[in-house]
Amino acid sequence: MQFHRKPHTYVNNVHLYVEDLNRSVQFYEEILGFKTLERTDRKAALTADGKTALLTVEQPEGVTPKEPHRSGLYHMAILLPTRADLGRFLQHLLLNGIRPGSSDHLVSEALYFNDPDGNGIEVYRDREPEEWAWNNNLVVMATEYLDAQGVLDAGGGQPWTGLPADTLMGHIHLHVGDVDAATEFYTKGLGFEVVSQYPNANFLATAKYHHHIAVNTWQGEGAPPKSANSVGLHSYTLVYGDDKVLQQAVESVRSLGYTVEQEGNVYVTADPSKNRIILSL
């Protein structure tokens, strides 16, 4: 699949605030199977392939616990290459006493659970795009029971040995205060299109993926942003295919009235609910 490669725009890193860096690194290494790429006293970059950081966890000074009913992260979604990988991972979770939520979304099969700070995680595998159904330019998605035994069987009883090297950050799903305002920002500003809809939620993508980004008001209309130092989403990174498309996004976001700051070779902005976004090549 080509949905997470240039020339398309996609998510490639999520940066989370956590209360205890040591605890978080241990969880993400032992439960998820990440490897630590770089680490300081307060921050760690985690990788699947040993080269690219998919997840950054940071313990800021004065960190406070996760706050309820705020905009921010609903979940980050880690995309495994195959159903067999998902089966081995599910077996691994169960052996470690974690009983995840699960869903068959028609386009994908997914497992859901939280990290020790309450940050939401999805681990999923995609069905082939040829199996997806489209109706009036919207991909057909649902939330149905997962065939968990079938997923386990696909793993062949083999042990989980960590994230495969070609694991990706498949998408990010955000709580926002206003779905319409967020959708305008992501479509007219950042160049995504609406590809599916749920009650009080829109799913957005490039290249007709089922979604790279989703936004919802499931924490309540008008949910305020989290406090600056609380657990949750610090930022996430979008990769653009070339500088022309990136500059177009920067100008479009500014034309909508939002601030975009250049920091080195990247740009930093925030959506209407103050979810911080790094725009990069």
From TrEMBL:
The keyword Transmembrane helix does not apply. Signal peptide: none annotated. InterPro entries: Glyas_Bleomycin-R_OHBP_Dase (IPR029068), Glyas_Fos-R_dOase_dom (IPR004360), Glyoxalase_1_CS (IPR018146), VOC_core (IPR037523). Residues 10-126, 168-281 form the VOC domain. Transmembrane segments: none annotated. It holds the Pfam family Glyoxalase. The keyword Flavoprotein does not apply. Keywords: Metal-binding. This is VOC family protein.
